[in-house]
């Protein structure tokens, strides 16, 4: 064996592959179907011979170890990746310089994908830059600009939604309602802790207090949930299946509470005993199976999952010292969830409901018991755009189709038709410039052109509701989704725009004031895989427009 090794080492000096052959000679046979250490498919594999050479030398010999020598040789042979400087904005003087600079920036960084871009001067009415301006691209959340505009145009900035409680019977002197109580939804996104203080249950608790304050103490009939203002479909066409269960893709309904997310709370008991589970908001819309056990210590291993629309299973362990832990879970049926929360809130106010919770329509002769109005639409649009809340967009998109009279059913189809009419007749865009299957931009079937975006921005700037539209947009370097972008540049505190981001889309569209006072409207859309470089490109083009001036 020793002779064999010496022969292999000699051979390695004459033939580069000899060392590998020596390793193969020493390698024990691997079982069939396994990957041996010297197999070509084993990246970075170390043969027994190499492992032996990596052992440190005796302490008496003060010389570099074989590992150090190998590392030095590897370092010397490594090809260093060139450092690419960060894209910087420019200060163009004149329209031609701006066009040249934006063209250079647009083509300087991204390695693949497709760009569409357009910049106009609202002040002077001319086009300063256009590249693939009529390409139909996936907009991501820049789609919310269309939703905001059509909702403000059709409903008005001061419009409010109303979640109503009605009765279809009479209330006796003892507070007994001989009939049904109806909860009628209006597609109000504000039934949320974002607007009603007191946590996820606050909206329904407030309604229950108002019902009790109206003298109702008992309902002999059912609690009917009326969500007929919207289509029955809860998930828009074009939402990918991988979105299911994600908070940003919760299903929607004309009855929507807490953005259709329920909080599952787990509180430990004594070690060895059961833990307690509660829901926020409390709702009769779920049957909860709790198998969580309390263990010693402070660790937790909790699983909370929904089975169907009305069952929830919470399992695992929670440490006795862990305190209360909370988890979010997307609801499956918003209608039953919301109405169940009202029933639980009524019971907490001492109002008994004899019947069941069920879906239905409001009878024509039903009388109003109480109502909970929303904040003005302008405020709802501002929260939607600044925080890019998808469920808000879906509700406002369909409400725009219902109109002020609330006679039409709010659906994706009717909302898309309303948007097309608005874009062609009011904005002046071509009929095929916008394809909308949802209002949030989460659908992969949505398509818009940069030209349509800029035309929308131009129209919105001059519209009676233009100030509300402007105020709804994040500001570069200062607020919401643009807080950490374009800081310490001429765009900070100046540029305000809507972002759009998915795995395959980067977009930004909005307004910026140039150095000479001109108001520019712009749209940048990138569809492709190199989105980080695309974002870097956009963040250089924004300050470039802000630093632009001309005589």
List keywords for this structure.
single chain, 551 residues, alpha/beta, 5-stranded antiparallel beta sheet, 5-stranded mixed beta sheet, 23 strands, 30% helix, globular, disordered N terminus
Structural class: alpha/beta
Number of extended strands: 23
Please give the count of helices.
14
| Helix amount | 25-40%
* Rg estimate, integer Å: 32 Å
Side-by-side strand order of the widest sheet: 2-1-23-22-21
Main sheet: strands, sense, barrel: 5 strands, antiparallel
The N- to C-terminal Cα distance equals 88 Å
What is the typical, i.e. mean, pLDDT?
Answer: 88
Strand proportion, as a percent range, falls in 15-25%
Indicate the overall shape.
globular
Residue ranges: pLDDT <50 for 5 or more in a row?
1-76
Question: Can you offer a commentary on this structure?
Answer:
There is one protein chain. This protein is of the alpha/beta class and 551 residues long. The chain has 14 helices and 23 strands. Strands 2-1-23-22-21 form a 5-stranded antiparallel beta sheet, with helices on both faces. Helix 6 (144-155) packs parallel to helix 10. The longest helix is centred in the C-terminal third of the chain and has 16 residues, at 412-427.
Short description, anyone?
By secondary structure, the protein is α/β, with parallel strands linked by helices. The protein contains 14 helices and 23 strands. The strands form six sheets. Strands 2-1-23-22-21 form a five-stranded antiparallel beta sheet, sandwiched between helices. The protein has a five-stranded mixed beta sheet with strand order 17-8-6-3-18, with helices on one face. Strands 4-5-7-16 form a four-stranded mixed beta sheet, covered by helices on one side.
